[in-house]
Amino acid sequence: MVRPALFILLVNTVISCNNPKSQPKAMVIVHGGAGYITTDLMIPGEEEGVRDAIEKSLQKSQQHLANGGTSVEAVRIAINILEDSHYFNAGKGSVFTSSGTNELDASIMNGQNGQAGAVAGLTNIKNPIDAAIAVMERSPHVFLIGKGAEEFAVTHGMDTVPQSYFYNKHRYQEHIEGLSEDRSKFGTVGAVAVDHNGNIAAGTSTGGMNNKRFGRVGDVPVIGAGTYAENGIGGLSATGHGEYFIRNVATYDIAAQVKYGNETLDEAGYNTLMKKLKSQGGNGGVIGLDSQGGVVIHFNTVAMPRGYINSKGETVVLIDVD
Ligand code: ASP
What is the CA angle 91-81-62, rounded to 5? Predict the structure, then answer.
């Protein structure tokens, strides 16, 4: 006779073996910043440049996952490609502060072990996401800022660049014209990946907001605001008006609805972005992957370059509201 407890165990085992959801598929999703630049407002060549960079970012990252690589490294690969493109407000294409300088922020979270790393106010590091990963993996700290973060990055072999590396005619024009924070393109970049072991990682990198006061730090390097990952729950990377994302602890707010409530990651993302933040005037968006690699995308602006590789292996890149 099968005892009840054993029977339940047997049934659960059979269900989980038959359930395709128990085998997470390696997967990556990226964003290039929520904002107001729809494809019809883009300058010549911009749409192609944005699409090409997102495609390349997804494909290189997915290739790494297909070779058995980790989700943290997949996030780095995806974000590095976007940081090196001048079409996004991160790395090379970063916006200017009100003082005409560039101050870059980034963060990473590893959902497997809850480790995180963040940097803020970098002025000379080419790829801030690399510095954030180094803080996570090679220091006992979570968050380094300014000169201390730069020195740490250099000590750990990160490439440095002069401030002129960040000069871009269009960005500079936005700075000079003093476009309001909301009308200018946000353009932050982010990536979330799940690897073959089901480990989730999320990362985000930004130049911040156009004409931000120098010394201002947004949500991007604040764990639980701009970036969050937890195995079994999901991974999230946000973009938008950072002050709202900090005040609402936005990415953790989404994860907490899954963790302590009955919401799916998708429903939770909708609640936070489309109800809570929107009602406060908090413009922006979020991308994520749930614990099974299910795609989550929500934004309350009119555009957010974004992409993922669908179940047929096709690369999907979108910019405007569908
Ligand atoms: N969230 C970023 C910040 O406030 C800006 C953005 O996403 O474009 O610094």
Answer: 145
